[in-house]
Design brief:
36% helix, globular, 13 strands, single chain, Rossmann fold, six-stranded parallel β-sheet, binds NADP nicotinamide-adenine-dinucleotide phosphate
């Protein structure tokens, strides 16, 4: 089955634009309203849009994603968008037969499990407000009467927004030394690889059951290893010094181990290949 009319919420975001870019070349009719037209914190605006446009499928790429601000100044908006926003989307779609695809995050897991999390692991604790709100959002999506898919992604990079790869590339051009944490582990994941994987998933959507999927590149690294790879690939003269997470001051706590394991979808390529492609295509030095 090819779903014809797809509503992408958050199509202007880093992941949303990759999803739009990949799906636009497929045989889909894409609806990409801006936040001014469809604000997920406003139930009426979602209801009106769905009623008027009757999409077959919603892909929610929208979120409040400022993990540090979510600890204080952005706390209310974080819950409003990442939790209540999802409740609004689910409530507004319950009367229509709309399939919902939602993106979530590795930060729903705060257990610091060193060997990683599969889709069967249940998150029990979160270490930051963003992770808490995103977990509440997942629970709202689970209440959907229609088919739903929750794709967890992690450590995203891609064009359109400042991310770890672009930040390290920028800093390494301006500095001869950088301090990067070597005890924070995860899976860097390319927005375009997620979008390609999503496109393949849509081709066979009827063969998948509702539930959780971990859509991440293959491999695991520390932020230190990722930074070294970026700098080496760019052939920059910048030394990376390993530091500890406890010595890197940021508002939000993050897990030492935040590793998603994909056991249900076709494997994506290794993160190194994806980072190299992103740098070669989008990072100017
Ligand atoms: N970035 C990461 O490293 C990372 C890691 C793990 C998981 N994720 C998850 O991946 C998904 C995509 O993240 P991203 O980094 O691509 O996000 P992003 O670049 O911050 O984009 C978020 C998008 O959501 C829109 N938005 C915010 N509030 C909205 C509202 N109330 N109503 C409608 N739209 C709203 C934004 O609109 P405006 O353009 O108007 O602001 C923007 O287009 C999210 O679910 C995020 O939680 C991200």
């Amino acid at each position: 089955m090819k779903t014809k009319k797809i509503l992408i919420i958050g199509a202007d975001g880093m992941l949303g634009r990759a999803v739009f870019d990949v799906l636009k070349s497929e045989d889909y009719f894409l609806l990409t309203p801006s936040r001014e037209i469809l604000d997920i914190t406003d139930k009426k605006s979602i209801g009106n849009f769905i009623e008027a446009n009757k999409p077959d499928l919603i892909i929610n790429c929208s979120a409040y994603t400022n993990v540090n601000e979510a600890e204080d100044t952005g706390k209310e908006l974080n819950y409003l968008v990442n939790h209540i926003g999802l409740k609004n989307v689910v409530d507004s779609t319950s009367q229509y037969n709309v399939v919902l695809i939602h993106f979530s995050t590795d930060y729903v897991f705060g257990e610091n499990k060193q060997d990683g999390y599969t889709e069967d692991d249940l998150p029990h604790i979160q270490l930051n407000e963003y992770g808490c709100a995103k977990r509440l959002g997942e629970i709202e999506v689970e209440k959907s009467k229609n088919k739903f898919f929750i794709f967890r992604v992690s450590w995203l990079f891609g064009p359109g927004k400042k991310n770890f790869v672009s930040t390290i590339a920028e800093l390494a051009q301006k500095n001869t030394e950088l301090n990067v944490v070597d005890d924070e582990f995860g899976v860097p994941t390319y927005t375009y690889d997620v979008a390609q994987s999503l496109a393949k998933f849509l081709e066979n959507i009827e063969t998948y059951s509702s539930g959780y999927y971990h859509m991440v590149n293959e491999g695991i690294c520390s932020r230190f290893e990722e930074a070294k790879f970026i700098i080496d690939h760019l052939k920059l003269n910048c030394v990376v010094n390993p530091i500890k997470l406890k010595d890197y001051k940021r508002k939000a706590n993050v897990p030492h181990y935040s590793i998603l394991i994909n056991t249900k979808l076709p494997k994506l390529r290794f993160w190194q290949e994806a980072v190299a492609e992103y740098i070669d295509k989008y990072i100017k030095i």
